Amino acid sequence: MPNLGFITRNGIEISDYYLIPTIPDTLSTYGIPQIINTIHKFSVERPLKIECLGLVITKFSSNSRSHARGMVSLPTRFAKIFQELGLPPARIFETVMPQANATADSMEFSNTPRTFKEKYGYSRSGGEPLHTYVTNLTREFMKHVG
């Protein structure tokens, strides 16, 4: 969720890791330092072992200059946040989730897919079927958590 209310905070507190999804534009990434700082603060206060597993780029639009600039500047800005807190750096996941209407449509309750591929669409983005991005992100996630 885009905030750290009680429900989100409780979920984070019982987790070993958290991921930060973001659109790679200035406004969408503005709150990332506050999120990391807040989670770090309450994990120290309670002593909890919570690690930021990384940042996942979502709703990426390849024809957006703002997104292209964000993809260039985000790694340095993201690393700096952890450095300032004295934490080990977190990764930016290699799998970039594209902006696609079929992805949003998969959340419709009237949609009754029988398979994962049906749910996430056979539509293509960036030359790949949309379900491939979800599969790749899942594999990348599993590789990093062991």
Describe this structure in words.
Helix 3 (about 30-45) packs parallel to helix 4 (about 65-85). The chain folds into two domains: about 1-100; about 100-145, no CATH class. The two termini are about 25 Å apart. Helix content is about 50%, strand content about 15%. It has about 150 residues and is α/β, with parallel strands linked by helices. It contains seven helices and five strands. It is globular. Helix 4 (about 65-85) links the parallel strand 2 (about 50-55) and strand 3. The strands form two sheets. Strands 1-2-3 form a three-stranded parallel sheet, sandwiched between helices. A two-stranded antiparallel ribbon has the order 4-5.
